[in-house]
Write a structure and sequence with these properties.
By secondary structure, the protein is an all-alpha fold. Helix content is 85%, strand content 0%. The protein contains 8 helices and no strands. Helix 1 crosses helix 7 and helix 5 packs parallel to helix 7. The longest helix has 111 residues. It starts with 9 loop residues before the first helix and ends in a 7-residue tail after the last helix.
């Protein structure tokens, strides 16, 4: 059978049970030979001998009683046991309660619905960040207790599965024995029916034929009905145990996920929420700093404009010596030349700086795209 991670359906489990409890070919051949031998003994019984007749009818009446009784007892115990397992795994079960409690705690601590910046009219007294982390600290203890409870529940489920596996093995063995009885009974029925038809064709009805039909075949077929009914009951019991066992495995896996993925995800969410809040505070500070810088630049520009005009007026009104003006002009040309040389040297460096910023922005854009594709930057998650 091909490997698959899909859970088997009830019909598939039933087919598997039928195959596992079926009688193998060698046993079937042995039973067939035995049924012919038993059939010959029945047909050759001295029906006029009361003791022989009584022994024969008693054997038919008691045929398979041991297997039927064991199966009946096993199914009675199984019914009680499955009832207990169903209650334990239901809405009131320890694992179900634990998972529900953990879900409520996780929803209550979800940071996506909390505005960490908004403080309201009582902002000086109420800090949403402090309140959230106080709530998290209080819930952390409760979550640890829930996880401990889930661990205990998972252990109970594992113990239940061990019990179910033992019960299944016992039930499969009884069902296999029952199948052997059914094969033997059917083979004996077929053989006797065939022999009776042959004798009727030769001698017609006789006391022996009547005895075999009424005292042997009739109770044998009643017993075959009992066998088949019990077979269906046993198979349903095995299937029920298999379904419960697989559901228990699913619950155990849910507990494992709750202990690892869910609780870890909560810790990450809380940590990220705190980090994002801190980033928001820093961004606000940077924004304020930038605004202050812009205001300073604007004020300086206004001062330069005002003072520059005053300086020009003074220059026009003052008597400046020619030599002084020539020296100043020389110094100015030298300064301009120095500025030109500086610009020429700075151009390659500026180009390299621009290229570095271009590479950095491309890498940043690629990182942002990967985060968007993986869902990391999706709001509300």
């Amino acid at each position: 059978m091909a490997f698959t991670l899909e859970l088997p359906q009830k019909e598939e489990i039933k087919k598997m049970v039928e195959e596992e409890t079926a009688v193998d070919t060698s046993t079937t051949l042995m039973i067939s030979d035995a049924s012919k031998q038993k059939g010959e003994e029945i047909l050759n019984t001295d029906i006029d001998n009361f003791h022989d007749r009584q022994e024969l009818t008693k054997a038919i009446q008691e045929f398979g009683n041991d297997v039927l009784k064991k199966s009946s007892d096993k199914n009675s115990l199984l019914k009680t046991r499955i009832g207990e397992l169903s209650k334990a795994g239901g809405e009131t079960g320890e694992v179900a309660r634990g998972l529900a409690d953990l879900s409520r705690q996780m929803e209550d601590l979800d940071p996506s619905g909390i505005d960490f910046i908004k403080k309201g009219p009582l902002g000086g007294l109420f800090n949403p960040v402090r309140a959230y982390f106080n709530r998290y600290k209080a819930a952390d203890t409760a979550i640890a207790e829930i996880v401990t409870s889930l661990e205990k529940g998972a252990k109970v489920l594992k113990d239940d599965n061990t019990t179910l596996e033992l019960e299944q093995a016992s039930m499969r063995d009884l069902t296999k024995q029952l199948n052997q009885k059914i094969v033997l009974g059917q083979e004996l029925d077929d053989y006797l029916t065939e022999q009776i038809e042959k004798q009727k064709a030769v001698n017609g009805d006789s006391d022996r034929i009547q005895f075999v039909e009424e005292e042997i075949l009739f109770p044998l077929r009643q017993r075959m009905i009992d066998f088949n009914q019990m077979l269906a009951v046993n198979q349903n019991g095995i299937i029920a145990m298999e379904v419960i066992r697989k559901n228990n495995y699913e619950l155990i896996r849910s507990v494992n996920r709750a202990q690892t993925v869910t609780v870890a995800a909560l810790n990450v969410a809380v940590t990220v929420a705190g980090a994002l809040y801190n980033q928001k505070i820093v961004l606000e500070k940077v924004k304020a700093l930038n605004q202050t810088t812009n205001n300073m630049i604007a004020a300086t520009s206004r001062m330069l404009n005002t003072q520059g005009t005053e300086i020009q007026k003074q220059a026009m009104d003052s008597n400046i010596q020619v030599e002084t003006l020539k020296e100043a002009f020389k110094e100015t040309l030298t300064a301009l030349d120095s500025i030109s040389q500086y610009k020429q040297k700075a151009l390659p460096q500026m180009r390299e700086t621009i290229e570095q910023f271009r590479v950095m922005t491309q890498e940043g854009e690629a990182a942002i795209r990967r985060m968007e594709e993986s869902g990391v930057m999706e709001s509300g998650n």
